[in-house]
């Protein structure tokens, strides 16, 4: 599954060649849910296994294991970054999740180099970190909107790769997901927001301005995904026009990642029989 | 419900008079679930309402509403602070929850006054903050284990009340829950941990030493609950021997709190028809 969605390291990619409505499954294609009902059920079923692995990861950290996972979510407006957090991360124990939504940098953040605010929000050992947007904004919106000189932006791809490599060296498994939405599906989702007054707070006229820059954003994503899909921290393209599939696919990526880490409950370093005796007597 | 579990301001309290297995419901007693199956179902049903109110609270903050909620969980070892976070906070959108588990203070934390680390972990406007242990440890374990001079501890109750009052003045609704466990139930839970090697990481022989100080801890709780149950930030005693009831009661307290706040989706400050036109054309 991970292999299937992974962006090959060192190549070029053409997002136009990726189907935003695709339903891709395991290598044999057998275990991808074929429809919404099956997808919702399969995602719910993964919840228990995910939560169990998450508990093991946390437990293991109490005995000195420094491993942790960082899920990076990127995508155009309405691609479902927030929905993924709600529906996928909602399957887990919130106490072990460290979620950060990156907004436009504050004045204080702008006074530091672009990775400064990222370093301050990393998961601790045993935790699952989730970035809703990330340091990639500094090569996406920053590139499209020309928020920094082009040479500086060019330098950032290498800085990101070095940074992510330092994370993986420190025990962080980085799982990067681009939620790949179609131009038409975005229009439908934005129109839906307009139709529902309870969703107006999620809408800003700026969303339409970003939409007008769609080709430039797609190009910026293609460059970022190609240059920063590394062996240490690969990018994955998640077809995101179907919410149920998006949630299933991200859950599945997390599950495969945690199963590969295979964290174990640590053994106690105390005398169990002696403890039992003291409790029964007390 | 809140009234029923609330510790009266300014009085003395005798925890021995509170039944740890009680099943208390609303003022008319009608809506308390009578058994585990009903309790689990009722808690699950509250999930959707809780999540809806949480979304409104968050949405409202995007329009400048500074209100937020801080849930403080205290209780003896195995009383279920972590379980409450998992099962109650797990009903909510994790993106809007800011959870902090307070451990024994680090060297850095000890170099500051006792509320310093608390101030650094408060919920932001629109968020639900959850403290698994809290500044109350500084008048609980600190009192029982004599970690500070008695006069200093005596001063802390007033400092806590002043601090919490400043929080409520700033839009924070503080909901404090003491998970009230019986001595016998704690023994059973600790023995269960010993029986399951996958739970040994949760056990430390120090738990038995704390258990030997049970009466001193109960007294420290009685003093803290009596002195710090204020009109601004009352304490609630949650019967905690039954996990399903504990989860139901805390969910119910949160639900009543959020319903009273009654946050509203903000209106959009843009021209909806104009936005629709631009989208349909684009």
From TrEMBL, chains A, B:
Question: What's the protein here called?
Answer: Polyphosphate kinase 2 family protein
Q: Which UniProt keywords apply?
A: Kinase, Transferase
**GO MF term set:** kinase activity
Q: Which Pfam families match?
A: PPK2
Q: Which InterPro entries match?
A: P-loop_NTPase (IPR027417), Polyphosphate_phosphotransfera (IPR016898), PPK2-rel_1 (IPR022300), PPK2-related (IPR022488)
Q: Which Gene3D superfamilies match?
A: P-loop containing nucleotide triphosphate hydrolases (3.40.50.300)
Query: Which part of the chain is the Polyphosphate kinase-2-related domain?
Result: 41-263
